[in-house]
Amino acid sequence: MVRRMKIHKTQVIWAVEHEMARTVEDVLARRTRALLLNAKESCRIAPAVASIMAAALNEDDKWKEEQVKSFLRLAEQYSLK
Question: How many domains does the chain have?
Fold first, then answer.
């Protein structure tokens, strides 16, 4: 059984506004530990996290793309092949 991971918008916004999270890695690896719990699932939710963060940080689509790309590269190291 595959368990879907949920990261709530409020968690992401809290991390940005109160914990100084500035990257998708900050949120998914450091603040929520999602990457350590389920690398594959954290890759699935990375684009949504990037979108929420971009809105909160007033960043553009290029920033979102770079963040997701960078996070996926990192997550490869945590995935079981």
Answer: 1
